[in-house]
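Listing S7. Sequence submitted for prediction.
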Amino acid sequence: MGAVAVNAALAANYSSAGTVEFLLDHNKNFYFLEVNTRLQVEHPVTELVTGVDIVLEQFRIASGRPLRLTQADVQWKGHAIECRIAAEDPYHNFAPSLGDIATRTEPSGPGVRMDSSLYRGGRIPIYYDPMVAKVIAWGPSRAHAIMRMRRALSEYRVVGIQTNIPFHLAVLDSIDFQRGRLDTRFVERFLQHGMPEEPDREEFALVAAMMGALVAERRSTAGSAGGLAASPGEPATNGSSPAGESANWRLAARRSALR
């Protein structure tokens, strides 16, 4: 497939980042599907397993600079998974979910990458693609990447709209997915019996409102007492709060590991 993709690019005299897609059958026969003359949404997966900043290389090529890599320079390491976070309701046939972002808490930590457009007070309108963020998890093996992704998604909180995070978590728990038994009808089969029961949204909305009030109170307290400042979308905490200390220690540890 790699050789065919390169030959296709050479035949078209193509000189930028692009993607050639194929379909693969059970006998490992592959069939040409399409060429995308752009970066794919999933390009962070390639970047994490190769260590190549594809966006940077694309800018360099567009500015007339030569490609710095040969094929031998591209070495694969580990496994990466990407989940597209969409403003959709997986419990109601993935209907669009519109509204304002009341607050959001995004995952972090070693091996976890976030590409996101979400911010507190942001509005999800009807005019665009429903994807609002991407979570990408890397691990030395596929099983490790799945575990990291499950942990990351379980920490992801978005209040104000519905997202497809529950669908991703349910898929990650699927034995077929974990064992790599995938094909073009996987989602269709999975949705017949794979989604867990819908949570009590009225209760969840009440808890979310209480959390919002608590965040506002802590910000006010921190501001008047000289406590720790919060970044946008993160609750402020003061030094006397055990919960706040725990959250700050966790964030500090992850940032140190990422450095």
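Caption to Listing S7: primary sequence and predicted structure tokens for the chain studied. Residues 201-225 form the longest helix (25 residues). The CA atoms of residues 134 and 166 lie 14 Å apart.
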